[in-house]
Amino acid sequence: MNVHPQINDSRRSFLYQLGASLGSVALTNLLASEAAAAAGPLSPKPPMMPAKAKNVIMLFMEGGPGHMDTFDPKPELTRLHKKESKLKAGQEAGFKFFVGSPFGFQKVGQSGIEMCDQWKHLADPYVADELCNYRGCQAESLNHPEALFHMNTGSRLGGDPGLGAWATYGLGSENENLPGYVVMTELALPQGGAGNWTNGFLPPYYQGTRLRPTGSPILDLASQEFKSREHQRRALDELAQLNQSHLESLGAEDQRLRARMESYELAFRMQTEVPGVIDLSKETQQTLDMYGLNAPETETFGRQCLMARRLVESGVRFVQIFSGGWDSHDYLERGHTSRIKSVDRPMAALIRDLKQRGMLEDTLIIWTGEFGRTPDNNKRGGVYSLGRGHNNNAMTMLMAGGGVKRGAIVGATDELGASAVECVHPIRDLHVTLMHLLGLDDNKLTYLHAGRYKQLSQFGGEVIKELIA
């Protein structure tokens, strides 16, 4: 009779026999990893700390809105209109002069938050008193592509994971039939294109999914008429067997192949789920009108904002909408008037809609550009160019819901709007704060790549406590 236990060559048995210290720790990690893999990379994960927000909707005004023309009034700049500027003497060719804002300003709501008189719908107290205006952020780059990459990925160089990729990496998604990270743009992509919502060095599961602004939001969303769901299911099952066999033959985990396999399954599930989410005919006419779908100037952005509400309502973790045309080096009044009119009603409707549905308190809305604008401009060929240059030392952004202060102005710029002077923080601190509101610790939300653990803030940052309610 053999009294010795039978030797088991499995990994679990080997690790277990190492002892109660290293072996049990390794076994626990192994089981957890296998359980996570079985659940799927986008399965919901608990936050690292108590979270104030579950979802994020980021409204990105590409080009850089003039902060002194939107939410940061500068009476002194108005007084100096068309007078010589000494702010950057000798740094740029041409005579520089101050440019006062072409707009008046108003204090709205019980909070008295300030905004220019072009904002009609956002000025409604029901909406305005939900806003938090942060005036202390500073960017690093004056170039659009670099600044866009920095605001959207934490790196000016491009190629790093987007904000939504980090959020879904840390928290997963609440709906396995939809992408965790969705992006909507105009027909023209923002500078840097998909580099603004890439998965970067994170596994491919976390890349943003772009919904097209015209036609079918996703190509091939509808199956060909001669293919039934059952036929597609059988074909996918056979393909999965072939891919699994190939994966095992590689001898090591191949994330690209695994992600491709998962993408086939997600696409199959999306064919059932997405049509219902994007079908706006289920909304009341009152809701469609509220978002501005009845007017050509607001129809596109309004449709995207309404889609954003439906997406987060369906469990999508991070939604980003890009609106271009804010780079007003010339014709400031005409350009900003048009741009504000195109987003004012949809933005107000989004906040109102989420608030009425009880979703605003755990949905964080962010309105921002990649940088701010200068208080002066060049006089070219003897003609006053009534616009503004790029300014990485001062900018303004709005937030609402998701645990930020209501009806608050945080930080300040100098009397001309040239530089932030109060509650001054770099973009990395803004990112750390965003993740903190989602219940994620930037110092712990890391990924091993190229020999070191990388994080959204690059090398760490601090939470902007003044923004948090």
Automatic annotation (TrEMBL):
Residues making up the signal peptide according to the UniProt record: none
UniProt xrefs under Pfam families: DUF1501
PANTHER family: BLL7424 PROTEIN, DUF1501 DOMAIN-CONTAINING PROTEIN
Source organism per UniProt: Rosistilla oblonga
Superkingdom of origin organism: Bacteria
SUPFAM superfamilies, A to Z: Alkaline phosphatase-like
UniProt name for this protein: Sulfatase
